[in-house]
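Before we proceed, please read the two lines closing this message. Tell me what the token row says about the fold.
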Amino acid sequence: MIQTVLGPIHPEELGVTSMNEHLVADSAKFLRPAREPAPAEPRMAVEHLGFVRWNYLGLRDNLVLDEPEVTVAELRHAVGLGQDAVVEVTSFGMGPDHAALPAISRASGMQIALAYGTYIARSLPDWVLTATEDELEQRFHTALEVAVPGTAYRAAMLGLLGTSAEIAPVERRALRAAARAAARAGAAVSIRLDASARLGPTVLRILTDEGLSPDRVVFSNVDKVMDVDYVAEMGAAGATLEIAFGEESYFGDGSKDATDAERLRFLLALLERDPDHSIVLACSVWTKGQLGAYGGMGYGHLVGRIVPILERQGVGPERLHEMLVARPRVLLDRP
């Protein structure tokens, strides 16, 4: 069965799925000084899009998803394009609001599966920083097997678990605790790797040493590192590789996202290198500037634009079905 915020469903009831989205989030802890004066109006607006794309972490309101009516409208649009489900991966450190998700699912018609976890060390609330490994494992176990605290539904998987360029002690505790809890529950775990390091094999070893099978590990946003050899090594070890499309902004001097054209070439290179790699896709919307209402690509970008390009590039229907439907079903399904 696959756990959604509206209750369990059979795997065959899950259609086209984005494996990494944020619907209600607060990432204001990542605010940094802009490279130019910020707009006088502190609220995000379409006219601020140029500023935001050049200073992506420079406007606090851009880093907060706090308008459920906008989220619902954008999800409805994605449903109309043929998308069926999203995995909501907002973990502690990014301001999750788990109780708000059932109403969003009902109003939008989008199935929502929750990933429950803790993000990178510098973003974490005090209760995570001081929690023991056993306490974190029990919290993860409760979310998977009983209910997500404050809700009546269970998590489908664990994530998004954050790791820094040098894995912090609290991040290591969370990795080990999540691996044990997920192994007990038959669940998958999604991992955020720091783009400035090459720690994928190390993180995978930490997880498997605690009993988690590599095929239950998802490395998210691997498009942050355009290194086919490095990423393919994780795929060859059995982990799932997730590529997220739709954001092409600058974070600072010499620091920017890849373009979708680059991501598409990267994905096609991975598929050519090993057609059997386990790959899933997403948009990883986590800011207002990525929403259609504010001039971004929106949650529907994956199905509405990226999938048609992949079809034109010769990616066949069976491979697309594997990435968009079959693999998400396998990762989210558990006893």
